[in-house]
Amino acid sequence: MAAPHGQQGWRPIAERRQPPAAGWPPDDNNGSGNNDDDNGRSSSEAAGASGSRTKRAQVKNACVNCQRACKKCDSGRPCQRCVKYNLQDTCVDSKRKPRKKGVKRGPYKKRKKNDDGSSVAIPILQSDPGLDESDAGDSDADDSGSDTPLVQGHVASHARFPRLPLPLSHHPHPPVISVAPETPTTGLTAAFNSLATTSSSSMSNASATRFAPAQHYAGHVGQPGGYRAHAPAPLPFAHTPGTIRLPPIASFDQAHPRARPMPTSASSLAILTDVALSSHPSPHPTPPLTQQLPPVYPPYQAHPPHDPRSPQRPPPEDSEQLSLQLPDDARSRHTTTGESDLSTNYASSVDNDDTHDRDAAMESNIQRLSRRLRDTHLDQDSGSDVN
DNA sequence: GGATTCGGACGATCAACAAA
DNA sequence: TTGTTGATCGTCCGAATCCC
């Protein structure tokens, strides 16, 4: 984990660019000779002896291996790092997803002319007195009244594209991040919304009102096409055998401490269920969820993601899970629509039949969990005030 | 000790916006 | 039409952790 601010070892970013006294550079670049940026300068040089911070050089397009490892790449193919790890065969440019179009941006800061003719931006005052100036013109999660999505601004790439908790080579099945890519208009989300409201009743009102509909994630974590090769795109309520995967809420909360949109999704149901069950152990134990539900692989894949490092991966044995796959072209169809409305939902971008099949399966799971959750509450909370 | 994970800072790009 | 702004997407640093 990254050391949080204030912990030993943390340095300001600008300071981090300064080479430590010894052991520099660490990690992959250590002694590999590829510590030079594209301008031929070493990183320590680039850090700037003058004290003024210099830009961090980055390649236009990292190769897929470096991208996956979040490590420095170079413009050569194969790149130095791939050569070092004997990955020349797979050292190819990563694909960039096209930028979204039609995203509404709200009013800009008004520009005011200086005496010298130059213009300077001045912030637009917001009608909400609770917003300080730093919020003005800034799409924050608190600007819930705007037509901009709740989740805006920079979100750590790992929050947007969660990475695998273990090396792929250690996974008998690919882990799946569970984030709902559907909108509240679907039966699935509607069902979950009601459950979320119900199950959050024991929370404080403040917490409960922070529940946000699923589309607040839809433009980011739940958006098809936005997943790294090693971070499979999600299906609602997907899980791996042996464990239910939680959505990257912790990451999201760290990135947006003021905006905590609880994802109203099947994954949140999993969280709520886990919380409820852990705090209110049922007197009627049920089998583990993972024994009740078949493994679900991410959309666009008929098989688990292939890891070049572990060539032998058995195909999924349960054919039922394949019925939950999305058509191969769902992704491209979605990303080429150019829809400006982020509520354009994932489900609507795929065939209705597929959506219905998927929703039906998902709703079945939701309903099962809903019953469990409610039963648990009824068993344990009878007589207590859950309002 | 090397490999991997992962939070998050930082950079590049470009469409939306505002002013000329 | 042109310059500015800010959202989006990508790179990769570096600490923590894993694993041989």
UniProtKB/TrEMBL annotation:
<feature type="compositionally biased region" description="Low complexity">
    <location>
        <begin position="41"/>
        <end position="52"/>
    </location>
</feature>
<dbReference type="GO" id="GO:0000981">
    <property type="term" value="F:DNA-binding transcription factor activity, RNA polymerase II-specific"/>
</dbReference>
<feature type="region of interest" description="Disordered">
    <location>
        <begin position="90"/>
        <end position="151"/>
    </location>
</feature>
<feature type="compositionally biased region" description="Acidic residues">
    <location>
        <begin position="130"/>
        <end position="145"/>
    </location>
</feature>
<feature type="compositionally biased region" description="Polar residues">
    <location>
        <begin position="335"/>
        <end position="350"/>
    </location>
</feature>
<feature type="domain" description="Zn(2)-C6 fungal-type">
    <location>
        <begin position="62"/>
        <end position="93"/>
    </location>
</feature>
<dbReference type="InterPro" id="IPR050335">
    <property type="entry name" value="ERT1_acuK_gluconeogen_tf"/>
</dbReference>
<keyword id="KW-0479">Metal-binding</keyword>
<feature type="compositionally biased region" description="Basic residues">
    <location>
        <begin position="96"/>
        <end position="112"/>
    </location>
</feature>
<keyword id="KW-0539">Nucleus</keyword>
<protein>
    <recommendedName>
        <fullName>Zn(2)-C6 fungal-type domain-containing protein</fullName>
    </recommendedName>
</protein>
<dbReference type="InterPro" id="IPR001138">
    <property type="entry name" value="Zn2Cys6_DnaBD"/>
</dbReference>
<dbReference type="GO" id="GO:0008270">
    <property type="term" value="F:zinc ion binding"/>
</dbReference>
<feature type="region of interest" description="Disordered">
    <location>
        <begin position="277"/>
        <end position="387"/>
    </location>
</feature>
<dbReference type="InterPro" id="IPR036864">
    <property type="entry name" value="Zn2-C6_fun-type_DNA-bd_sf"/>
</dbReference>
<feature type="region of interest" description="Disordered">
    <location>
        <begin position="1"/>
        <end position="58"/>
    </location>
</feature>
